[in-house]
Amino acid sequence: MVDFHPLEVTQVKSLTPDSVAITFGVPKELVQTFNFTAGQYITIKKEIRGKELRRPYSISSSPKKDTLTIGVKQVDKGGFSAYANQKIKAGDVLEVLPPQGRFIFKPGAEPKNIMAFAAGSGITPIMSIARSVLESNPRNTMVLLFGNKSYKDTMFYTDLVKLQLEYPDRFFLYFTLTETREEDSLFGRIDTANVNYVLNNKHKDTDFDDYYICGPEPMINLVTEILTEKEIEEHKIHFELFTTTEISDEMPEKVDGKTKLSVVLDDEEFELEMDKNTKVLDAVLKENIDAPYSCQGGVCSTCIAKVTEGSAEMVKNQILTDGEIADGYILTCQAHPTSQVLKIDYDDV
Q1: Sequence-ordered strand ranges (E) for the chain
Q2: CB atoms inside a 10 Å sphere around CB 3
Q3: What residue stretches are annotated with the 2Fe-2S ferredoxin-type domain (predicted)?
C-alpha cells in the first residue's frame, strides 16, 4: 500500500476571501513518488482536535513543476479546510499521500482540442489540465467555461488570465458570474444557455477530443446531459465531483445477518465478522486495519478494492465504470455486503 510522506509547505497564497493555494516542496528522494498526471489529487492527513482527518485536494500546478500546489476552499468551521485557510503557513509539515485519481489528461503526439467546464473550487484540477494541455503540444487548444459568484470569488483568476495572455490563440476563457455583471464575462450559472453559447456559437466549428467537467453534481449532470444530447461519445466525457449529495434516502433496506469478511492488504490477509448493514470500509477501520481511504463520500477513488468472492452493493458510485463494476471493483466506503462471505483485495487495483 502507498504510504503518507511528510512534505513541507513552501508557500501559502490567498486566492479569494475564503480560499488559498498551498504549495509543497518535494525533496529529491520523493520526486518519482510524487510524479503526477494533470487532474490528479493528493490526500492530506492531519489530526485536528484529537481526530484524524483525511482530505483529498486536486493539484493545480503543472506536472512539469518540481512542486505541488493545491487549492483549498473553506467549507467548514472546525475541519481541515478551516485549518488550511486560517493556520497553515510556510514551514509547516503535513502528511501527504502520493497522487491518485482518474480524472486526467494525458499528453500525446497528436494535437488535441479540449473543452472544460468548472464551477467554484472545481477549477483546481482543471488548472493543472489547462497547463498540461497548453504546454505539452504547440498545436493543442483549450476552451474553458468557468462559473463563480464574482471575480472576487474566482479561484486562480490571476493564473487563468496569465494563461490567456500567454496563449491567446490557443486558450479561450469564458467567465460566467451570478452576482456581478462585468463587460468581459457572461452572466448566470453554467446553464443550458451559457453552455450552448460557447459550444454552438463561439466554437461551433471545433471538433473537441475530450470534455472535462468539475464542480457540484447538478452542474455536472446538466453539462453531461447537454453533451449527450449532442451525441458526444461517452468515453470523451470526463467528470469529477468536489462534493457529494446527501445519500441517506438512497440507503438500501436493512438486511439482517452477518458477513464473514476477508481483506487482503499489503500481501497480508485479515478476517473479521461484520454486520451486513455496515459499510465495508467502516468495518475494516474499526478493526484498526490500515486500509487506504480519503473522502469517505464516494467522491475520490482512494478506497477501491476488488471483490474476489461473494458480493457487495454500493450506495453511491460516481467513480467506477460499468466495466470496472462488472470486473468486481467496489468503493469500499460506499459498499455493504450482500453475501454470507465477502473477500476483497486492496492490492489487486
Answers
A1: 5-16, 19-25, 41-48, 51-58, 67-73, 93-100, 113-119, 141-148, 171-177, 186-187, 210-215, 237-241, 258-265, 268-275, 304-309, 312-314, 329-331, 335-337, 341-345
A2: 11
A3: 259-349
The dotted CATH code for 258-345 is 3.10.20.30
Contacts of 236 (CB under 8 A, 6+ apart): 208, 209, 210, 211
**C-beta of residue 68 within 8 angstroms of C-beta of residue 24:** yes
| H or E element that contains 323 | helix 322-326
Percent of the chain at pLDDT above 70?
95
CA distance 208 to 332: 35
pLDDT digits (tens, 9 = 90+) for 285-307: 999 999 999 888 888 889 999 99
The architecture of the domain spanning 113-241 is 3-Layer(aba) Sandwich (3.40)
Place of cell 463494476: 325
Q: Return the domain boundaries, the chain.
A: 5-100, 113-241, 258-345
Confidence band for 51, pLDDT divided at 50, 70 and 90: confident
Enter the CATH code of domain 5-100: 2.40.30.10
Kindly compute the dihedral angle of the four CA atoms of residues 113, 119, 125, 128, in this order, to the nearest 10 degrees. 50
* pLDDT number for residue 249: 37
Residue 278 host element (H or E): none
Kindly report the pTM of this predicted structure.
Answer: 0.87
Task: Please say if the pLDDT value at position 167 is more than 50.
Answer: yes
Three cell numbers written together for 335: 459498499
pLDDT digits 0-9 by tens, 310-322: 999 999 887 888 8
Nearest to 296 by CA among 53, 41, 3: 53
DSSP output for 171-223? EEEEEEESS---TTSEESSS-HHHHHIIIIIITTT---SEEEEEE-HHHHHHH
